[in-house]
């Protein structure tokens, strides 16, 4: 069992992301995605700070360089603010399961951006993986009209756009995170990203005058329970397991296993959210994950 601790940790990471998606979808439908985003950053920062203290003896990222702060703050603004703002709204519009599937586009987008911005090599097998992933997603979101036989999108276009923008935000945020992190501690780097996201949301909520909505969200016990679960399994348990995974197995294997959340989220969607899932949706999710796996071969 200990020989496969890296792979098991990666599987645990995928399960965590599934729990996070379902929890935040549930909370977002009760109190709105904006309030969920804001509160989970507060809770997430508390959890990640505790992890940072026990792992390296520092509660806050006081040892970060100016370079770390600049690039990781940009990453936090793009990933935790812009990307997650769209992603969490897509949870409300089309559900966490479909949003998780669209998020499978994040690795291909990251690879493309890495090729353009960081001049990283893009292998032909990687391009094949992108195509396979896209085919899997298309199987889920497209259908043929029974009357005129035309291909149509069977989900909210706005919700799909939000999910795609969320995936793009995650990809761009990851690129800037890679630039700013270097050899710096992953927990501390996440703290800086959360701080940037929190400040961004604070300004945004102030401009929209939505602090009353956030305050009301704190009074909703069911929503707060879901947000707490999401924050616990996201930046705390999920990030910790991902670090353990990378430590005990290769980055490629870790990435492949961790990216199966479009599949692992299906049982949660059925049992908790009571969704009815078509066979082609399951097949499409599996194909999309295979595409991501091919990219890391």
Task: Characterise this structure.
With 297 residues, this protein is mainly α. The chain has one domain. It is globular, with a radius of gyration of 19 Å. It has helices at residues 5-31, 33-56, 66-94, 96-102, 106-117, 124-141, 157-181, 186-208, 211-219, 221-248, 251-258, 261-271, 279-295; strands at residues 142-144, 151-153. The longest helix is centred in the N-terminal third of the chain and has 29 residues, at 66-94.
Could you write a compact summary of the structure shown?
The chain is mainly α and 297 residues long. The protein has one domain.
Describe this protein with a few key phrases.
globular; 13 helices; 80% helix; 297 residues; mainly alpha; two-stranded antiparallel ribbon; 2 strands
- Mean pLDDT across the residues is 89
Structural class: mainly alpha
Q: Which shape, going by the Cα principal axes? A: globular
**CA-CA gap between termini:** 24 Å
Tally the structural domains.
1
Low-confidence stretches: none
Indicate the radius of gyration in whole angstroms: 19 Å
**Roughly what fraction of the amino acids lie in strands?**
under 5%
- Give the number of helices: 13
- Order of SSEs, N→C? HHHHHHEEHHHHHHH
Q: Approximately how much helix is present in the residues?
A: over 70%
Number of beta strands = 2
Record the strand order, biggest sheet. Answer: 1-2
Sheet bearing the most strands, described?
2 strands, antiparallel
Task: Indicate the topology.
Layout: H1 5-31, H2 33-56, H3 66-94, H4 96-102, H5 106-117, H6 124-141, E1 142-144, E2 151-153, H7 157-181, H8 186-208, H9 211-219, H10 221-248, H11 251-258, H12 261-271, H13 279-295
Antiparallel strand pairs: 1-2
Helix pairs in contact: 1-2, 1-3, 1-4, 1-10, 1-11, 1-12, 2-3, 2-8, 2-9, 2-10, 3-4, 3-7, 3-8, 4-7, 4-12, 5-7, 6-13, 12-13
């Amino acid at each position: 069992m200990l020989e496969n601790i890296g792979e098991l940790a990666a599987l645990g990471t995928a399960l965590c992301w599934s729990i996070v998606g379902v929890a935040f979808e549930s909370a977002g439908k009760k109190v709105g995605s904006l309030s969920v985003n804001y509160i989970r950053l507060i809770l997430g920062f508390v959890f990640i700070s505790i992890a940072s203290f026990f792992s390296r003896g520092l509660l806050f990222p006081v040892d970060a360089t100016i370079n770390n702060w600049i690039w990781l703050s940009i990453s936090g603004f793009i990933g935790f603010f812009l990307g997650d703002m769209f992603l969490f709204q897509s949870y409300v519009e089309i559900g966490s399961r479909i949003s998780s599937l669209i998020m499978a586009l994040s690795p291909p987008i990251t690879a493309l951006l890495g090729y353009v911005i960081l001049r990283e090599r893009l292998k032909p097998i990687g391009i094949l993986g992108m195509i396979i992933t896209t085919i899997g997603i298309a199987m889920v979101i497209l259908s043929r009209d029974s009357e005129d036989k035309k291909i149509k999108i069977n989900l909210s276009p706005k919700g799909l756009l939000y999910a795609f923008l969320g995936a793009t935000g995650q990809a761009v945020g990851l690129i800037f995170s890679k630039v700013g992190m270097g050899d710096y501690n992953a927990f501390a780097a996440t703290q800086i990203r959360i701080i940037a996201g929190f400040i961004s949301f604070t300004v945004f909520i102030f401009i929209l005058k939505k602090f009353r909505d956030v305050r009301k969200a704190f009074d909703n016990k069911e929503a707060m329970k879901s947000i707490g679960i999401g924050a616990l399994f996201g930046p705390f348990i999920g990030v910790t397991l991902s670090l353990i995974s990378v430590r005990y197995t290769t980055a490629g294997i870790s990435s492949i296993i961790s990216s199966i959340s479009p599949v692992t989220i299906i049982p949660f969607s059925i049992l908790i959210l009571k969704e009815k899932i078509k066979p082609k949706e399951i097949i499409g999710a599996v194909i999309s994950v295979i595409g991501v796996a091919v990219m890391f071969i």
